[in-house]
Amino acid sequence: MQDGAGAEAAGSSMQALLALLADGEEQARQLGEMMADDPWSRAEHYRGAARRLQCTLGKAAAVARAIEAAAPGSSRGTDDRSDSPRSADESSGRTTTEVQERQSMFKRRKGLPRWTAKFRVPDASLDATPDDGFSWRKYGQKDILGAKFPRGYYRCTYRTAQACGATKQVQRSDTDLCVFDVTYQGEHTCHQKQRASATVAAAPAHGAGSQSPPPPPPLEQQQQQQDPSMMQLLRLGFKRVLKVETTPGLHDHGIGHRDSGPASAPAAPFSFPSASPFHLAGEATDNPAAAFSPPPASSYFPAPHPVAVDGSFYDYEASPVALMRGAEPSELGEVVTRAITTGPAAFDYSSLFHHQAELDDPHLPFPPFGGPPHGPYQ
DNA sequence: TAAATTTGACCTAT
DNA sequence: ATAGGTCAAATTTA
User: Fold this and answer.
1) Ranges of each domain in chain A
2) Where is this region: Disordered (predicted)?
3) Of A41, A227, A236, A329, which sees the most CB atoms within 10 A?
């Protein structure tokens, strides 16, 4: 529902925003070319380009905020346009702005942190789904090429109520009916409390919730570095470099990043129930990648870590694994092992994760710092 | 009756 | 053109 006045006002701003974004895109592309053409040139070049890009994106963010303020409700958080009828949309009545809005929305979503987990249910015969204690709402199902089972699409139950953009995709393994590959995207910003008891939904058929908390990521990889918050990073002017791990064949870097600052994320977006129904599984069946995760995840958890429950397991995978699972390398971007911010205060678990950032622009020579370059947004 | 799921159409990216 | 992802009307469930 777009309110007339607001929408109009937003219209021109939107044009400006789009223009700025286009600029940013172009600048990023140029930066990428600079890199490609002259990989040995001095850092100043890149710094300058990065600064420009930063500036542009900062302006874009400002405009976006202005739009948001002018037309509240019309564009909620990550995505929300629940009521724009699509079927009836006069096929041609779409304005280019609408189209672009939609596109940018897609990209925004694409940029959300993404990680994968495997769940095992005790009984393959049941069409059970793993339950991690979070409340999800199924919004779609799709047959996937090459997969025996359809993939289920879920989003946080509180998506509209609390503008929580967390989503997940659940895919039953072709080979092991007890196993489910669950891909999470976006962190929970809602205030729902993760049910600690959640038993792997051995739960009969439907009902049951779903699962998956983005708990502690598998800090595999040996690398450990200080990972200041993104804002800090920006403040440092990209000085501090995150170690990026590239996947064979690729040379652009993806960097896990936190999308919009936890809107109102009070503290840790995720909580770890003292008794999670899952326990990390190192036995990721087929992938050698499992070899990467020697350090028992448990050692990273400050507190009681997941406990095994009726044979279920829960484990995180980093993109390399995903790669092995047949994902498109290009779609994976790279993995960035993020370090732990020692700051006890605002300890954000999400920074522990291996975010699988997916770059929209493969030319981007540096991490997609989605954050506005100017101070802490908000 | 409200909330959740199903399902086919629609949309975007590749 | 195709595959994957999302929407929303219809339907089912609580």
Assistant:
1) 9-70, 108-195
2) 68-107, 195-227, 249-269
3) A227
